[in-house]
C-alpha cells in the first residue's frame, strides 16, 4: 500500500473513532441532564423522602445542605455528574442499599426476560415479514399485517392480565407469577444470574423447567410485541429488495424463487434488520415495567414501580440512567454492526 494511501486510511480511522467518542460523550451528557432535571422537576422533595414530612425544620435544612440542594442548579448538576461518573447513584430509601447494588441485583432478571422476548420476536418476526412481502396483497399478507397491528394497538397490561386469567388461572399451563418457585429459590445457586441459562449449564432439568414455566408467558408477550415491530420492518425491507434489478436478473438466470428470497434478498435486508432487532431489544429493556409489575417479575421494571410508590427518587433516576445507558450502548453497537456488515458505509 502506498504511504499516502496508508496515511489517509489511518486519518480516516482516527476521525471515525473521534466522531464515535464525541457522539458517545454528548449522548451520555444529554442523558445525565435529562435525568437530573427530571429529579428537580418532579414534585417530590428528596429531603422529605428521607426524613419524613414530620421532621423538624432544622433537620430538613441540615440535610438539604448536606445533599447540596441549597446550591445553584448548575453546581448541583456538576456534583450529580461527578457522583454518577464515580459510580455513586445514591442510596435507596426503600432498601437502604446503594442504588447501584440494587440495579446489579435486579437487572439480570430484566435482561433475561428481554432476551427471551427478543429471541421469540426475531424467530417469528423475520419469517412472517418475508412471507408477507413475498405474498404481498394476498390474504396471508393481510393476516400478518393484522397480527402486527394488534401487537401495536393492544395495551400490554390488559393482554397480560387476560393471559394470566387464561393460561394460569383456567388452564394451569404456566407457573405462578414470579421468576422461580420458592422450592428452588434457596437451593438453586445461579452463576450468571440468568436463571434459565444457569439451570441448563448445571443440568438441573427440574429447575430449568420451573424457570421456563415462569418466563414463558411474560417473555412470549414481550416477544409478541417485538415480533409485531420486526415483521413490519422485515416486510418493508424485503419489498424494497425484491424490487431491485439484481432480483430481476437472478430470475432471468433461472435461479429458484426460494434461493432468490432467502439467499439474496434477505441477505441484503439483514443489514438494516440488525439495527431494528437491536432497537427492539432496547425497547424491551426499557418497556418491560408494566409486564414485570403484572407478573411480579423481580427485575428493573418492578424495582422502578416500587421505588415510585415509595417516592424513592434516587432509585428511580438511577434505574432510568441504567436503562438509558443500555439503550445508548445497543444503539451504538447496532451502528457498529451496520458499518461492519455493509461495506458501502465504510467508504463514505
From TrEMBL:
Matching entries from Pfam families are given as: BPD_transp_1 (PF00528), BPD_transp_1_N (PF19300)
- The residues that cross the membrane are 20-42, 113-134, 146-169, 211-230, 269-295, 315-338
Q: Which InterPro entries match?
A: BPD_transp_1_N (IPR045621), MetI-like (IPR000515), MetI-like_sf (IPR035906)
Alphabetically ordered keywords of this record? Cell membrane, Membrane, Transmembrane, Transmembrane helix, Transport
Q: How does it sit in the bilayer? A: Multi-pass membrane protein
Q: Which SUPFAM superfamilies match?
A: MetI-like
Q: Per the annotation, which location comes first and is thus the protein's main one? A: membrane
The residue ranges of the ABC transmembrane type-1 domain are 107-338
Localization per Swiss-Prot or TrEMBL: Cell membrane
Q: Which family does the UniProt entry place this protein in?
A: Belongs to the binding-protein-dependent transport system permease family.
Task: Kindly provide the name given to this protein in its UniProt entry.
Answer: Peptide ABC transporter permease
Q: Report the source organism.
A: Xaviernesmea rhizosphaerae
Q: What is the lineage of its organism?
A: Bacteria, Pseudomonadati, Pseudomonadota, Alphaproteobacteria, Hyphomicrobiales
